[in-house]
Design the sequence.
């Protein structure tokens, strides 16, 4: 482990993963509390359309991912409030169309076709320092939004009707929350990719929910849980490659670690609840 931490490239990769964990833990807690993981999935997959557009028109793919993600979050947010029953169908359509447009735009791009696997499943080992700076800036934006509008976000997550009666602009608050989700997805694209972003966004928060009864407590737990999964996944990928000559991408390995941790947490939480509910 010490050997890995002494490598400059690993320090850069670790910094990117830990910074992404901040956005993941905070926004993921809202997604789990509000039970909008399907909506978040639609936003994350729609972002791939922006990646393809960036390759086609020659601007940074991450900028396109952010633009498409924000556009999808706006459409889904308005539909969530005004359509209601048909929301699953609309979200699934946006989910599929985003992926389809991404593939079409990449096919139209001049020159050599880009490596789509790095965006679909992550390419954390090759992130540049400017990506680390981008994630840090997005973290600052997300933290500021939570500090300024945390009460409104919490009200909308738990009781929209009460929030509306209390004077909270529910639709605008929900749109802002989905916009934060889009930004969090952008930070995760290079970590685990578009396809696995939803898993890393929700699994740490679901683990945290086992051990916390408040939204703020979920956030405080979800961030280090996500960071721990990233560290274990990265070190596991590096160790397997260096010691056993087995090359495994860190993104999928991070998700496997998070899933195993969720299973252990669910088992331990179930035992704890059974012990508390049993008569003395």
Sequence:
């Amino acid at each position: 482990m010490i050997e890995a931490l002494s490598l400059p490239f690993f320090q850069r990769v670790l910094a990117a993963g830990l910074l992404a964990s901040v956005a993941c833990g905070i926004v993921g807690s809202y997604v789990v509390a509000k039970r909008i993981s399907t909506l978040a999935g639609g936003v994350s997959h729609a972002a791939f359309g922006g990646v393809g557009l960036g390759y086609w028109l020659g601007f940074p793919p991450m900028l396109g991912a952010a633009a498409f993600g924000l556009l999808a979050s706006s459409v889904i947010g308005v539909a969530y409030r005004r359509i209601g029953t048909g929301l699953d169908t609309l979200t699934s359509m946006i989910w599929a169309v985003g992926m389809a447009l991404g593939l079409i735009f990449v096919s139209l791009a001049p020159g050599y076709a880009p490596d789509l696997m790095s965006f679909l499943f992550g390419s954390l080992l090759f992130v540049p320092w400017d990506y680390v700076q981008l994630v840090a800036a997005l973290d600052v934006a997300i933290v500021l939004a939570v500090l300024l509008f945390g009460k409104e976000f919490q009200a909308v997550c738990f009781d929209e009707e009460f929030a509306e009666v209390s004077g909270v602009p529910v639709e605008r608050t929900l749109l802002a929350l989905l916009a934060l989700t889009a930004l969090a997805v952008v930070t995760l694209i290079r970590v685990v990719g578009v396809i696995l972003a939803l898993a890393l966004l929700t699994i740490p928060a679901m683990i945290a929910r086992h051990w916390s009864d408040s939204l703020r407590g979920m956030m405080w737990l979800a961030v280090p849980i996500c960071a721990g999964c990233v560290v274990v996944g990265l070190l596991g990928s590096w160790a397997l490659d260096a010691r056993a000559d087995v090359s495994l991408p860190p993104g999928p390995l991070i998700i496997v670690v998070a899933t195993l941790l969720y299973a252990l947490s669910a088992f331990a939480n179930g035992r704890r609840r059974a012990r508390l509910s049993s008569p003395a």
